[in-house]
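Re: fructose -6-phosphate structure - here you go.
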Amino acid sequence: MCGIVGYTGPKEAYPIIIKGLKRLEYRGYDSTGVALLNHGLKVYKKKGRVAELEDNIVGKDLHAHIGIGHTRWATHGEPSDRNAHPHVSASGKLAIIHNGIIENYAQLKQELVKKGYSFTSDTDTEVLLNFIEEIKKNNKCDLEEAVRVALKRVVGAYVILLIDEDDPETIIAARKGSPLVIGIGKGEHFLGSDASPMLEYTKEVVYVNDYELAIVKPDELILKNLGNEKITPYVQKLDVELAAIEKGGYDHFMLKEIFEQPQTIYDCLRGRLDAIAGTITMSGIQEYADQIMDANRIVMIACGTSWHAGLVAEYIFEELARINVEVEYASEFRYRNPVINKGDVIIAISQSGETADTLVAIENAKSKGAIVLGVVNVVGSSIARTSHGGAYTHAGPEIGVASTKAFTAQLAVLTMIALKIGYEKDILQRNRYMHLLNGLYEIPEKVAWTLKQNESIKAIAEKYKDARDFLYLGRGYNFPVALEGALKLKEISYIHAEGYPAAEMKHGPIALVDENLPVVFVATKDSYHHKVVSNIQEIKARKGKVIAVITEGDDSTAAMCDDVIIVPEADEILAPMLSVIPLQLLAYYIGVAKEYDVDKPRNLAKSVTVE
Ligand code: F6R
């Protein structure tokens, strides 16, 4: 959460920073600010989006070759002009931007207040900055040394970028627990929460690790640990193209990303699944195949949509590989004292690869001897780097705050792992294995077919957009899809929605049903279909409105429902990759009909790097 950008070099810094902030706005959009150094420090900041700041500072002196910029997701202090970053130190010489939380800020603040400091904001960030300034003054050291000393006392997570009037070419940056990428240009350096602000300038990047400090000048990048020892930067090549982070003619990133799914699922399977030879090649999994096959249990840890992918995978792994699977919210797992036995395998699922709770849960599990495999979208992200092995989902940058294409790519990867392990373990017979491999291979085409229902889903969205609540029901593999459909609707349209296993409805939620309640059934043809049909009847008997996602040709179910959305026939193990698509579109079109900003829903941020 919070996006940070920095630049030092011969170009004008402001346009690079503003463009970079627009790309990072998905990380938070409560306020925006920039600090520029050119014969003194200039700071411009404002509550609201990047575009509002941009409009507000037209005509101001924006000339500089070094600067830092921030787009905020508020943690300490309400979204306001005065709580917006950058913050300036008491002397007026230092400016800081920060992504993360300083947990012991109250204690540090008390110490500073005793020394006569006062504060203009409610943020932990301003406290940290003045703490650094106090050390610089007391120890008569440079900013780099002051940051190093200060960070040894700091408890919490951070990426910080600082500039100093007394050293007008240098950005000091440090990280613990939040992401920081440094792009290397010719006589210039770029800094960002991810690589998107630097894509058109360089493809060479360094991912800074926890407890590292970077001294960044136009033609020099020095990395050190907190013990002041130099570290050789590991330069990596980016393989993301600019087009991947642009809207490409769609009204919203969310719609673009929903429509990309035939391609992203295909990209995920490409080079791995060979449906003719009957092979699945995944080197980051193969290395640990014996441990997975011998595992007493697999624990999936994740949050939000990724947790839903874990729930689907639970059904798939237990069915295909007969391994006991538990699915845990990372935030609960990390604070319990979970029993981890030797031989347990953890699968951490994350789009961003930066979710703080998932990251800490992984560290806990690793410290207890578990093998951790990451199913991650963002290449080079913290979770990808800290896992022992795993597989990337290759869905490309997901910018819409609501996760869509990452979910189906996670399902594709997790299904491939389950198929591979089930087959190698001899649980899965050749016929069934080949049938599923072929079925998986056909999924991109079937997703493309499903997307053709776009217009009819839009019409259904119009019809129900004013409902106050929604219920989403499904069974078996489609139960987590119901949860995901409800989550998408809540996020994008701010309509209260609940997902439930269809059979559980009778144990409580059925009391909600009346003629005003739309109930979305995920009712594709599977082994539970006749049971789900009974549940549809139960809702209809109580005058509920039924919208159902059904399999092509299922006319008898269609006849019972108020509205239906059709998906192609598929094996029940693979069906969630299809049945979720209409639910993504339904949420999208309801959000659009209500004129909400579907790419940046209120209160949310894409990458949850605070707990
Ligand atoms: C929902 C959504 C969130 C994320 C969750 C985990 O649309 O985007 O629920 O799924 O914050 O994020 P990752 O997958 O990045 O760990």
